[in-house]
Amino acid sequence: MTMGRRRAKQQELFIEADRIEVPGYPFFDRLNRILSEAGFDAWAETVASPFYRWNEGRESVAPGVYCRMLFLGWFEGIGSERQIARRCADSLSLRRYLGYGPGERTPDHSTLSRIRHRLPEDFHELVFDWVLELLRKEGLVLGRKLGVDSSELQANASLKKIKYKQTGQYYRQYVRSLAEQQGVAVKDDDDLNRFDRNRGGKTLSNEAWESSTDPDAKIARMKNGTTRLAYKAEHAVDLDSGVIVSAELLASDQRDAQTLIGTVARAGSKLEALGLDTVMVTAADKGYYSKANAARLLLAGVTALLSQPRSVKHGPDGLGYLGKINEAHNRSWLGKCIHRLRTMHTERSFAHLLETGGMRRLYLRGRANAQKRYCLHAAAFNLGRLMLKKTGSGTPRGMDEGGKGPAGGQTGLLAGLFRRLPGRRPVRTDTRFEPDSGFLPLAA
Question: Do 163 and 152 share a domain, yes or no?
């Protein structure tokens, strides 16, 4: 066989549309079918119509296309809107997913930015609620047991651009002024860094410092131990299915114990709007524990499963009695099972959204912009749970590698054989426990 050589050649001037071969994404084709059958595009255009003018100017990008492009960010693990636009422009299969032909120009990142600024935060929240309603019809949202957890997102801002609130100086200017006050000669940046490293009493508090580029971002310690400007993402997850019921971006300087009740209330209101029963169990880790939180949940009729630090002591008063009830719930067999579900579903939601989903670092500034992007990112995660039920694969990569559903290969078979190997304990797949059994009658 003769070796092929790459040569410059004259391309055809015209080509028929039927001759263009598009391999296609079976995953996105099925996702489009599900969204079309549910009437997503007509619903999105109706909700977004008050924010556009009627029959004036050229047509904008359809709201359904805008949402699909941001959904793609989670399915493909892309955190930047610029990269999402470049990916859509480069792929014929994704053009078909968006409803664009080979000769049409797909929206660029500036178009996505303008649409994001035009559509308010409520629109993005309504899209998230619409996806929740779609999952409820499929029986994937029960809302009886919630798991709450949080994680840090690195903001699109640098610590080099923080300002001292009293004087308005940047950090390096502030350090240089301290060196001048102490009579230390600073000739270059190395001397300045050496002085900053050796001076005592060095702190970076949010009360004294703020970012000049993103005032909403707060100084926080990340998971890897570094100090960055960040936001705090907090999830309320349905422990029966792993669906995210509420996803909110908060200031990173707010402690978990301060935001628990608000997160449970938001999740409860969403479940109530879906026509589901009220929350009966709320599980969280030690960071969310406080006597006040345990008391408020128990008095509201919600079984509190807040992990308690060992240093907590319960007094003879009413708060101490409610704390003992929370401790008894944690030590029960059912409480341990629910905590196991909490660690499995809530931690997994952050792993999928932030690590493989590409949202650990934000590319937008301002809490409002970041919340809009994160809201549709979480909605795409929930759509992935729906696709997992219908097709056996929750992501395009999972379908390409062969899932356990109709579009898959041997992954499901191998997993089934691995579960039945001798010497392994049987894995219980029915995790929908009744929350009342095994618990004290106070929360029944």
Answer: no
- Domain presence at residue 406: no
Q: Which H/E stretch holds residue 154?
A: strand 145-154
Token digits for 376? 């549709």
Helix (H, G, I), strand (E, B) or coil at 223: coil
171 and 148 in a common domain: no
Contacts with 153 (C-beta within 8 Å, 6 or more apart), sequence order: 230, 231, 232, 233, 249, 354, 359, 360, 361, 362, 370, 374
Query: What stretch of H or E contains 149?
Result: strand 145-154
List of residues 6+ apart from 374 with CB closer than 8 A: 153, 233, 247, 249, 353, 359
Nearest to 155 by CA among 366, 354, 349: 366
Instruction: Render each residue's pLDDT in the chain as its tens digit; 444 residues.
Output: 556 566 666 666 566 656 566 666 788 989 999 999 999 999 999 999 999 988 777 888 999 999 999 999 999 999 999 999 999 998 888 888 998 887 789 999 999 999 999 999 999 999 999 999 999 999 899 888 999 999 999 999 988 889 988 888 898 888 888 888 888 888 888 888 888 888 887 888 888 889 999 999 999 888 778 889 999 999 999 999 999 999 999 999 899 999 999 999 999 999 999 888 778 888 999 989 888 888 888 888 888 888 888 777 766 665 677 778 888 888 889 889 999 999 999 999 999 999 999 999 999 999 999 999 999 999 999 999 999 998 888 888 888 776 544 433 333 433 443 334 444 444 444 444 444 443 444 333
Q: Which pair of structure tokens corresponds to residue 317?
A: 């008063």
Examine residue 428 and state whether it is found in any structural domain, yes or no: no
CA atoms within 13 A on the CB side of 388: 17
**Residue that the structure tokens 């693990």 belong to:** 77
179, part of any domain: yes
The answer on 195 and 170 residing in a single domain is yes
> How many CA atoms lie within 13 Å of 405's alpha carbon, on the beta-carbon side?
17
- CA distances 3 to 8, 9, 11, 256, Å, are 16, 17, 22, 64
Spatial separation of the C-alpha atoms in residues 271 and 247, rounded to whole Å: 13
Domain hosting residue 300, numbered range: 131-156+230-367
Residue whose structure tokens are 């055809």: 12
Q: Are residues 271 and 349 in the same domain?
A: yes
Give yes or no: residues 145 and 265 share one domain: yes
